[in-house]
Every structure is written in C-alpha cells, then in structure tokens.
Amino acid sequence: MSHHLDAIVNARLQGKEGLFSLEMANGRFTQIRPQLNPVIPTEKQLDASANLVCSPFVEPHIHLDAALTAGEPRWNKSGTLFEGIECWSERKKSLNQQDVITRASQTLEMFAAHGIQYVRTHVDVTDPKLTALKAMLELKERVGHLVDLQIVAFPQEGIISFPNGKALMEESIRLGADVVGGIPHFEFTRDTGVESVDWLMELAHKHDLSVDVHCDEIDDPESRFLEVLAAKALKLDYGTRVSASHTCAMGSYNDAYCSRLFRLLQKSDLRFMCMPTENLHLQGRFDSYPKRRGITRVPELLEAGLKVAFGQDSIRDPWYPMGNGNLLRTLDTGLHACHMLGMDWIDSSLELITDNGAAALNISEYGIEKGLPARCIILQGETPYEVLLGQQQALASIRDGKIIMQREYKSPQSALTN
Ligand code: 17E
Ligand code: FE2
User: Which pTM was predicted?
Assistant: First the structure.
C-alpha cells in the first residue's frame, strides 16, 4: 500500500453516531463525511474498522534528556524530587551528545508507537556546556517529519541559585530553545523564587517565547509561586502563552486561599500540566498517614474553564523508574487519582491528552476538520471508554496524509476464541 492516503474509512469519531470517512489530499483533510454503511477500502484508503479516530496525542511535559538513565550512577532511594535532582546532577557529569540523542530517540520511538505526534521536552540547561540542549536541538531537526518537538530551556538547579544561571538561560535561547522554563520552588529562598519568575517572564516576553514553569512541585502549602506567575502573566497579558506545570502544592492549599487564587487564574488564563503518575510517586514523601497525593486540583480547574493537560514527565529516570510512552496509562492513573471516573469525565477524558495539550503548546492547526493538516491516530476501541479500558497501543498514526506507524489489529475476542 502507498503511504499516501486518500481517505480513512469506517472511522468512529468522538461524540458522534455512526461511521465516517475522512478524506484527504495534499496533506490536509478535504472532507469529513458520514457513511451510511461500512465500505470496503480501496488501495489508497485505510480501514479504521469502526475504531475511534482522534487527533494525535500530545505529550506536553517530558524530560527527554534524562530518559532511560534510572539507576545511573545510583538509584533514587528516598523517592523524593530532591534526591532525584542529586542523582541527575551526578549523571549529568558524564553526558555527551550521542548519549542524549540515543536515549531521547528510543523514547520518541515509544511515543510514536502510542500515537504521540507532539512533544514538549524540558532540557536541563544548568550545565556550563549545554550538552543536552545542543543534542536535543540537533535531534529536533532529524525527527521533524515524525513529531513536532518543542524544547524548554529548563534550569533544573535554579536560575538565581545556580552559578551563571541567567547567562545559561539567555545562551539557550540564543541557541534555539523554544520555551522558557523555571523552578521557583527550588531556588534557595522565597524571594529568589519570586525574582526568578519575574526575570524569566520578562525574558520570554522580550523574545516572544512561551513559558513553562515547574511550579510548586512540593507538598508545602506555603509554596505559592503559582500566584506570582499568574499575576505576572496577567500584567503582561501573556497568560495563553504560559503553562504552570505540576502545581502540586495546590493539592495542599486551603479552600479559602484557593477560592481567591482561582479568580486570578481565570483572569490570567494560564495553562496547566498535571503529571499524575510522576507526582503520586514523588509527593507525599514527607507525610506519615494520612498521606497526600500531591496532585493539583484537576476537576476544579477544568470546571473553572481552565485548560489542564496530562503528561508523563519521566520515562525511567532519576525521578521515576517506570514509564513506557503510553499516555493512556497516565490518563487512567490521573482519572483515578483525581476522582474523575464518573462517566461524563471518562467520555471527555481524551481531551486531557489531545486538545488541552495542544492548547497548552499553542499548536495552531490541530483537530479533525476540513482544511486542517491530515494528522490523526486510530485507537483500539469504539468509544473513549473502550479505549481507556484497553489502553492498547495505537493502531495507526497518520501525519500530513501519510502513514507513519501502523500495526495489526488483534481483537481481544479472537484471542479468546482461538
Ligand atoms: N525535574 C523536576 O524538577 N521535576 C520532575 N518531576 C522531573 C525532573 C522529572
Ligand atoms: Fe517535569
């Protein structure tokens, strides 16, 4: 079969009855047409076999530079964020560009198998040589036909608290980083945390770049850098370009404070990224029982009209020993942890790994609509509920009208009857 498609036929679409054919030409959707009956595909058509077709998954938050280094040079025994940062600081000393490219490529292959076509990766720039950043910039060019990769200049050990932190951030932007990062809860003091947020926001604004801050990734209810970030975004009228990642402390804030905070969040229109598997593992580590979950207020943010995306954060790195690229696993865990297994939440849950990620990453042409780039994936299942129950790898991934990944469909039923 040619890799250029004319159409995907016998597709189910979320929230719609019946079957559809998705016609495409020159890399774009040209028509989304309801079918009266199932059809036999022609040579240039791909058969979705009544499975759900949706936009490619978006991995909004991952650390590709550290992926697949778990246990090197030692394992994180306490399971805390802070020991993870120490282990990584030791591993960082032996980085070279090939090492980074090899591990990041292996991770992107796992992502491709699960239908991810958009990735935002944080890359640690608290390294005087900027080895990982240079490697990732090179890889970005090489994989552009398979995945849109955004690179965050991420100051893992701080902007103010790390030697030459500001200069390293500026140099990273000069080299080509797409997004400005930060980590205010890791700066030495509350004041330097605030100073770092103010500084990085000005830097991003000046260069017309988006912002993605590791914000309050700690169970300390007094870690309140989110309000600082949101207030600055509001002042610069920049909220739609700003993502607050983790915001774990919000899971420990009191309700009175949150009620005040949410007013500001809505006004500033920030984007949120929650990493449920990662933070269930890293947070609550200083608690006895009852133990906190360390997860931000996902349903409340969504009900307030704010965009929240789920991300994996780690694939077997100093912070988290698990991970396989399957965002459906992350979604499943997040829905459990956030009390979101009501059927209305399940029905709309794919938004957390598709549309909301696309909004956070400011992806301009995203969705299954006439005129947009012909990018989509075929999932295993007819509805979001079935897809989530199975958590299978995607059946196919289509990018600009071309098949970039396809596998054979093995129905669970045939496995039972054979
Ligand atoms: N770095 C950090 O500050 N927090 C994390 N969760 C990871 C890296 C994975
Ligand atoms: Fe992270």
Answer: 0.97
Q: pLDDT per residue over 206-260, tens digit each?
A: 999 999 999 999 999 999 999 999 999 999 999 999 999 999 999 999 999 999 9
Measure Cα distances from 231 to 45, 72, 194, 197, 262 in Å. 50, 40, 11, 10, 12
Range of the domain at 208: 57-360
Query: Is the minimum distance from the CB of 313 to ligand 1 under 6 angstroms?
Result: yes
Q: Do residues 336 and 410 share a domain?
A: no
**347 and 387 inside one domain:** no
Residues 241 and 377 in one domain: no
pLDDT over 70, % of the chain? 97
Distance 161 CA to ligand 2 centre (A): 19
pLDDT at position 3 is 76
- The bound ligand whose nearest atom lies closest to the alpha carbon of 186 is 1
Domain boundary among 360, 379, 403: 360
Nearest ligand 1 atom to alpha carbon 318: 9
Instruction: Tell me, in angstroms, the distance from the centre of ligand 2 to residue 1's CA.
Output: 40
Q: What is the rounded radius of gyration, in angstroms, for the C-alpha atoms of the chain?
A: 21
| Same domain for 99 and 26 | no
Please say which residue of 343, 360, 377 terminates a domain. 360
pLDDT digits (tens, 9 = 90+) for 325-367: 999 999 999 999 999 999 999 999 999 999 999 999 999 999 9
CB neighbourhood size of 354 (10 A): 23
What does the pLDDT read at residue 413? Answer: 53
Q: What is the pLDDT of residue 210?
A: 98
List the CATH number of the domain containing 34: 2.30.40.10
The total of structural domains in the chain comes to 2
Is 388 found in the same domain as 340?
A: no
Q: Which ligand is nearest to the CA of 311?
A: 2
Burial (CB count within 10 angstroms: exposed 0-12, middle 13-18, buried 19+), residue 324 = middle
Q: Helices 225-236 and 190-207: crossing angle, nearest 10°?
A: 30
Q: Is the CB of 366 under 6 A from ligand 1?
A: no
Q: Does 230 share its domain with 331?
A: yes
Residues 86 and 227 in one domain: yes
Cα(105)–Cα(211) distance, integer angstroms: 25
What integer best gives the mean pLDDT of the chain? 96
By three-state DSSP, how is residue 109 classified?
Answer: helix
